[in-house]
Design a protein that fits this description.
Helix content: 40-55%
Radius of gyration: 16 Å
Strand order of the largest sheet: 1-2
Number of domains: 1
Structural class: mainly alpha
Distance between the termini: 44 Å
Number of helices: 7
Bound molecules: zinc ion
Length: about 170
Amino acid sequence: MFHGHLVGLRIPPRKPQSPQTATIALMGRNNRTQTNGAPSPSNERQLNRRERMAEIIERDGPYCVWCSAPLNLTLNPPTTEHLVPRIKGGPSWLENELAACKRCNNERGHQSPASWIHDCEGMGRTPRVDIVIAALERLQNAITERGGIRRARPYIASQLRRLRKR
Ligand SMILES: [Zn+2]
């Protein structure tokens, strides 16, 4: 049985037995919104910032996408990272959001994922390249399904090319 506010709970580095419990514990909430299948843009708007972060953590695991540091509400709180920066035409969809530590998020600025991953590796960090590639593919599929977001399409395609040939 879940007890609220298990902030600081240690989550195993590999697939947690119960991702949902881990997510809830991380976010310190016990009434997480249930969704069936992929959320649509219309029901995403009903999720508040915490609920959106809980969805991201459940999808990708509680680690910074740029340095793999464990994210933890008290010691290393997650921040929302836009895969395609908003100024590059990135949509405000869950598919364009990743979890990152505050340090990496601040330092990245508006750099592209491929270029920032290169910098992170140069600084001895361990970016989650597979998660970034999966996110780019998911975003590309969402754009194909929903339409629009024209400006971000070539950006996403070129990022995928750069990351896949590494
Ligand atoms: Zn980080």
